[in-house]
């Protein structure tokens, strides 16, 4: 792909790779902690017959030598007190959807790679903090809400983000800059590079190319003679270069939601309204990106004792507008939550989604003339954010307890908002 292409990563891109640690076993520990938490467990088939293969094992089991791909009989010899569990893919999918929803709450650009890993493009997500802060918040939120550990790689492209997430496991966060590639990767064998399988690694060995550094410096024409067009890609990868972009899921979502753990327990309605305004803006933005409309609005409220309630309302007509989502969320909150009761977490989920082009939207008799203006405003706001990043436009919910000061600071940045994500960016090559 060439620079300037619609799918070419922007300069200064920041990509996360989220890799769930020992996912299947971690899900069982989270779902039934009294049975499995901290114990040597493994997911395997043919449990009763003690045959089959270990699909994955917990870190407690790995400490005893139990590994993925090992025969069950051998695993039991190494760890006699190993608990074997049958796979439960419905349960795994439930938890997968939940951690993906958390990723979506920080960026609409999420690409699922498998049931337990995804890429997230946070280039335009500076309103949540620096890349390191976002990764830390995301990792903590996944653990606090789902009891699942994960490792996160931070890099300027997908290849390096994937490599970075493997650098510190479990529960690690690792930054891999382009300039770090020679020191971090070049002494590793070629098979260590993401995308190089055993056959390719063996073929490179026969060509006397043993390390990633040797591959990075290899003659491109010679590589192309042996690997075809893949030769050029191999050399680019060894140098940490990857032009592929994060491609969001194309399948229509069944729901779009965003929850946020509050910095402290909120008790005042005005504080809650401010959070709902921000969350409404984010879910409406993701709704429009997928060209959908929603009929049902659901709010989620969790108190400090971790008791969670959800309440929903189905609208007379589908919507894609932030203000309608916001008003409905506030109305549900006022009706179903006692005044002054402390709140730890708030969220909004849009349900009963349909494609906008296939949906007949009933216009209100008294303000039907305002609809084109609202649609145009949405288009302008979305195009500004597409061009300059998600923080190009602020809602009151993003301004915190002293909105006047933050707003003055934001305005002072003028038209340079699209460059603002480079500040405090650990991937900035000029720092």
Write the layout of secondary structure elements.
Elements: E1 15-20, H1 23-31, H2 33-36, E2 41-44, E3 54-57, H3 59-62, H4 72-78, E4 83-85, H5 89-104, E5 110-114, E6 117-121, H6 131-146, E7 150-155, H7 158-165, E8 173-175, H8 181-185, H9 198-206, H10 212-217, H11 220-227, H12 230-238, E9 256-266, H13 269-289, E10 292-302, E11 308-319, H14 322-336, E12 343-355, H15 371-388, H16 403-412
Parallel strand pairs: 2-4, 7-8
Antiparallel strand pairs: 1-6, 1-7, 2-3, 5-6, 9-12, 10-11, 10-12
Q: Could you please describe the fold and organization of this structure?
A:
The chain is α+β, with helices and mostly antiparallel strands and 431 residues long. 38% of the residues lie in helices and 19% in strands. The protein is built from 16 helices and twelve strands. The protein has a five-stranded mixed sheet with strand order 5-6-1-7-8. A four-stranded antiparallel sheet has the order 9-12-10-11. Strands 3-2-4 form a three-stranded mixed sheet. A hairpin with a 2-residue loop joins β5 and β6. α5 packs antiparallel against α6 and α13 packs antiparallel against α14. The radius of gyration is 24 Å and the shape is globular. The relative contact order is 0.11.
User: What ranges have pLDDT less than 50 throughout 5 or more consecutive residues?
Assistant: 1-9, 362-368, 401-426
Number of helices: 16
Overall shape: it is globular
Most strands sheet: 5 strands, mixed
Side by side, the strands of the main sheet go: 5-6-1-7-8
| Helix-strand pattern | EHHEEHHEHEEHEHEHHHHHEHEEHEHH
**Beta-strand level of the residues, as a percent range?**
15-25%
Number of strands: 12
Helix content: 25-40%
SS-based structural class? alpha+beta
Radius of gyration: 24 Å
Distance between the termini: 27 Å
- What is the average per-residue confidence, as pLDDT, rounded to a whole number? 82
């Amino acid at each position: 792909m060439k620079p300037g292409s619609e799918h070419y990563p922007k300069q200064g891109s920041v990509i996360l790779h989220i890799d769930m640690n020992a996912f299947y076993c971690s899900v069982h520990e989270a779902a039934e902690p009294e049975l499995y938490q901290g114990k040597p467990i493994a997911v395997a088939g043919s449990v009763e017959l003690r045959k089959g293969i270990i699909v994955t094992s917990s870190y407690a089991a790995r400490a005893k030598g139990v590994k993925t791909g090992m025969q069950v009989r051998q695993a039991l010899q190494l760890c006699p007190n190993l608990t074997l569990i049958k796979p439960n893919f419905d349960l795994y999918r439930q938890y997968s959807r939940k951690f993906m929803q958390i990723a979506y709450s920080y960026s609409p650009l999420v690409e699922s790679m498998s049931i337990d890993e995804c890429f997230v493009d946070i280039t335009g997500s500076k309103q949540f903090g620096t890349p390191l802060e976002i990764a830390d918040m995301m990792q903590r939120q996944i653990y606090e809400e789902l009891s699942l550990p994960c490792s996160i790689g931070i890099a300027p492209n997908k290849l390096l983000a994937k490599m970075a997430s493997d650098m510190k496991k479990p529960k690690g966060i690792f930054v891999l800059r382009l300039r770090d590639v020679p020191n971090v990767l070049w002494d590793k064998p070629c098979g260590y590079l993401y995308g190089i399988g055993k056959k390719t690694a063996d073929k490179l060995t026969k060509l006397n190319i043993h390390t990633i550094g040797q591959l990075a410096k290899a003659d491109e024409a010679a590589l192309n003679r042996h690997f075809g067009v893949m030769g050029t890609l191999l050399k680019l990868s060894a140098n940490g270069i990857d032009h592929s972009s994060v491609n969001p899921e194309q399948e229509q979502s069944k729901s779009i939601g965003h929850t946020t753990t509050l910095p402290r327990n909120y008790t005042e309605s005005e504080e809650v309204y401010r959070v709902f305004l921000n969350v409404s803006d984010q879910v409406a933005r993701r709704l429009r990106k997928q060209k959908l409309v929603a009929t049902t609005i659901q709010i989620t409220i969790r108190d400090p004792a971790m008791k969670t309630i959800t309440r929903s309302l189905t609208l007379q007509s589908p919507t894609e507008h932030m203000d309608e989502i916001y008003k409905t969320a506030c109305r549900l909150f006022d009706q179903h939550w006692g005044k002054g009761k402390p709140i730890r977490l708030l969220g909004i989920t849009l349900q009963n989604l349909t494609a906008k082009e296939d949906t007949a939207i009933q216009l209100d008799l008294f303000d039907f003339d305002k609809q084109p203006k609202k649609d145009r405003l949405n288009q302008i706001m979305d195009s500004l954010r597409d061009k300059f990043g998600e923080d190009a436009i602020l809602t009151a919910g993003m301004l915190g307890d002293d909105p006047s000061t933050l707003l003055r600071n934001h305005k002072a940045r003028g038209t340079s908002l699209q460059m603002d994500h480079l500040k405090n960016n650990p991937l900035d090559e000029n720092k």
